[in-house]
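Appendix B. One record, verbatim.
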Amino acid sequence: MTASLMALTASDALTIVNNFLLLFGGIAAFIIGMNMMGTNLEKAAGRHMRRLMAKATKNRFLGVGTGAAVTAIVTSSSATTVMIVGFVNVGLMTLTQAVSVIMGANIGTTITAFITAISTTGGTLEITSVFACLAFAGVLMNMLGKKDIIKYVGLILAGLGLIFIGMNTMSVSMGELMAEKVISHDATGEAILVDNPIASFVKGMFSAIGGNANGNLTWQIPVLFLLGAVLTGLVQSSAAVTAIVMSLARAEAVDLPFAMFVILGTNVGTCVTALLSSLGTNVNARRTAFVHFSFNIIGGIIFMIPLAFPFVSNGIATVLQSVTDVIAIQIALFHMFFNIVTTLILLPFQNMLVKLAMFVVRDKKGAAVQGVGEEDETLDYRLLKTPAIAIGQARKQIVKMGNLAFENYKLSLEMLLSGDLSKAEDFAEREKHINEYNHYINSYLVKLSLEPLSQTDEKKLSSFYHVTSDLERIGDYAENIVEYAQTAVKDKIVFSEHALEEIREMDSHLTELYKYVKMSFERINLSYLRNIDIEEQATDKLCVQMQQSHLRRLTENRCTAEAGAIFLQLAINMERIGDHMKNISNSVKDYAPPVKQ
């Protein structure tokens, strides 16, 4: 090798450096393409993905199918598993339901391996050239398209093209780096063939750990398994490591049995992302990440034991080679075979995997019952990468904030009418939570706004800011009513029976109004707008009526000036609470589907 290195000129060394740079650039283009395609597929199918996840709760077989489908969409089992950890953390999915979805995710990720394998095949018309042209068409669609779906499809095509371009770049650069002979020049400048020092070094290294041992692997097996796991854990992409292994195999630096054990390792390495994402989550979310890890570890062991025998690994290699002579597709087929067989073996033991996770990841002793502050954590930042689902979670938290605000309004009115201020501390505590919700939700919305959103999701997000503001104002008006109650108790002010009847009538309209507004916002349904308009108009008319009645009672000396001042302010505050409720229902008009006639 030293002699070969000495024979290379500065120009030859520069060629090697260029090939290394192209290799790294190819890896970068491949990963960017995967992310671009997955992100835009998720945006284009956001609502459908939510429906798929809902179906996962039906039974374990639907769970496997859902996991496979979603992973095929986002082209990353790590992304799907992180999503599932987030779902379990916020209570959208139970730990038992998550297990089958994780198994399906491992099957779905094999689609990525096939895309990678196909990109290495050639023919009369190189497939990479076709997809490179599609990438260009995709860029034009994204630039010129006016509808969101056209832009998404354009970026999907661009991402797919980048995958093929990146893989082709890796394959070409790896092929040149792994060539046995390279052209160099002697002292006279004449071209000569010399041994490729890079190829000699890499092939020697892989040969030392069984790279071309024709399946006769013994002690090398755990080394290869660990190599795949560590590399995948470092780059956090099993697809990228699989692509590198395919490139090495195409350059004949490694054989199929070698690649099999590295692929087994990549399945374990991909668990690192989910394990990291589970940090800081609740106990069931951490158990979900552990289930993913244990599933791949157990599956790896199940396969490693028989594959350790040469006749088994050579037999599988022979079968795969009889299907296709393209080694990259052979690797992709093995990847799929491993995940399908592991799922079939472990699916009946789903409950045992759950029990194992519960045994390893224990509940903390003396764990407190969840309160309002802990419920805030259901706005899981792991869901930001799936905006359609993150927006759904934000909506749920806004509904909780609305319930708190309306409960405080009812409590404030109760204190005013009864003269009992014993619940003032409860009111203050709830008002504190309302402010915390407002700050927490808006902080989450700001981070969500930085993610790529569809046009409809942008409208929803924009309206949410206004809704939280309206809810906070309802809470503020409730505070005003508490102050009126304190003044009434202090000055011993008593309302007339007629005044009390008007207050109760206004309250009944506000109660009905909130019921319809909540259903309209929570269900994204405009069919309640007619009832909302009726109740809100009733509060407007009643506010005017209350003012007129007060003046009449005042002139008839049936009401004191002090009681009248509180009564008038109360009427105005209640009417404004109704206005803010109406604002919330109006916000739904921006994105809700029209009512079917």
